[in-house]
Amino acid sequence: MMAAVKGWLQSKQKLIAAKNKDYYPVIMEELRPLVGADTRLLEVGCWEGQSIRHYQQLLPLENIRGIDCFPEAVSLCQSQGIDARRCDLEKDPLPFADGFFEVVIANQVFEHLKNIYGAISEIHRVLQPEGHLLIGVPNLSSLHNRLLIALGRQPTCMQMFDDHVRGFTPQAFSNFLTFNDLFRVIRFTGLGFYPFVPPVSTFLSRIFPRSTVIMLLLLQKNPQAANRPLWIDEARRVVKQTNL
Predict the structure, then answer these.
(1) Region for 195 from its dihedrals, namely left if φ exceeds 0, alpha if ψ lies in -120 to 50, beta otherwise
(2) pLDDT tens, 61-88?
(3) Residue-wise pLDDT tens digits, 125-175
(4) Could you give the angle at the alpha carbon of 55 between the alpha carbons of 197 and 68, nearest 5°?
């Protein structure tokens, strides 16, 4: 009996998670006014190319690049005609010239990285002076995570056996991204609201965007901050007792 109940709860949990993480419509809505036929777009963490197929509705495939750290994912993208390249964000510079892209997307990537400082510095480098970054991560301080922590439980976005190694709250992540005014926040959007599913979760996300499952930020590079120290510079100055 208990096994059946546990199985039912797990299936419901997966359904709720899937319904709350359908972020492509929102990403497409954000992208639409930013791209044209000649726009060059980079997806950081392109995986098997599924998301690039969405972006291809807005601009030609030849204008889209992707990077991923997994060779099998890069090969799969390349087999679909996608210009994908292998790059370990924690160690490698992005294989593109300064200011090459108008738009960079990094969705559900930064929670997997320990060295977020080098990654954001490289993204900033390859963006044009007034280019845009669209970045999404799980929200450590979502309502359901706050309740879990209050009960002494682990938040869902930071499990012990998990791919995620970092957690972000809206305020801390916004402050990090706008370090030295290198980026300006254009819009903050909250997505998903556990334990509800759309349309209820969509409604609650609009009212309480900083208590949602996912946070999505649209930022613009600040050309007036071109010569200021980057995130990696600050990390090297401040972060001493770890291996970056």
Answers:
(1) alpha
(2) 899 999 999 999 999 999 999 999 999 9
(3) 999 999 999 999 999 999 999 999 999 999 999 999 999 999 999 999 999
(4) 90
Which tokens sit at 243? 């291996």
In this prediction, residue 154 carries a pLDDT of 95
Asked if residues 166 and 110 have their Cβ atoms less than 8 Å apart, the reply is yes
Kindly write down the DSSP assignment for every residue of 49-80, as one continuous string: SHHHHHHTTTS-GGGEEEEES-HHHHHHHHHT
154 CB neighbour count, 10 Å cutoff: 12
Residue written as token pair 């706050």: 146
Q: Partners of 65 in the beta sheet?
A: 42, 83
The residue whose two tokens read 């044209």 is: 36
What are the structural domains, with CATH classification, of the chain? Answer: 23-138+166-192+213-238 (3.40.50.150)
Q: Give the contacts of 174 (CB within 8 A, at least 6 positions apart).
A: 185, 188, 217
Residue 27, Cβ density class (10 Å: 0-12 exposed, 13-18 middle, ≥19 buried): buried
Residue among 140, 135, 138 at smallest CA distance from 169:
140
Indicate if the pLDDT at residue 25 is higher than 70: yes
pTM of the model as a whole: 0.91
What is the per-residue burial (b if ≥16 Cβ within 10 Å, else e) of 42-61? bbbbbbbbebbeebbebbee
